[in-house]
Amino acid sequence: MKAAGRVEIAASPEDVWAFLLDPQRVGPCLPGVEAIERLEDGRFRARARVGGGLFSTVVEIVGGYEDLDPPRGATLTGRGTGIFGSSHVTARFELEPGAGGGTIVSWTAEVTLAGLAATLEGRLADGTADRAVAGVLDCVRARLEA
């Protein structure tokens, strides 16, 4: 699954950067995240509940940031494992100054699924990644603009 988009946030690039690179701050914006912790090596580990009904499960995710270019962009990579399979996520975000001191966030994301999760992907994929990332950035915007 691939997705891309843009959103404008009424906060400085430095503030958006600091928020996006802090797992404790961005974690509550991620769908289904129940717990998140920083690891000693700079990465993070999260536990998230995904799916619904009979297909609800807990996924353990380990991820981190690469290609850091403060405060202009970074790549987030993560690998999740759970009873229904595994996933690999690569998301890149670019920050640029927007109108009135705000920030334009451009992003791309690619999610690869394996196991039963991959079998179900066709039914769930249409727009799911777009909606998920847009939802995360809507949450980030709401928290930074509060």
Structurally, the number of domains stands at 1
Work out the radius of gyration. Answer: 15 Å
By oligomeric state, this entry counts as: single chain
What percentage of amino acids are in beta strands?
over 45%
Biggest sheet strand order reads: 1-7-6-5-4-3-2
CATH class: Alpha Beta
Number of strands: 7
Count of DSSP-assigned helices:
4
Mean pLDDT across residues: 86
Going by CATH, the architecture would be 2-Layer Sandwich
CATH topology: Alpha-D-Glucose-1,6-Bisphosphate, Chain A, domain 4
Instruction: Assign the structural class, choosing from mainly alpha, mainly beta, alpha/beta, alpha+beta, or little secondary structure.
Output: alpha+beta
Shape: globular
- Helical content (DSSP H or I, runs of 4+): 25-40%
The CATH homologous superfamily corresponds to: START domain
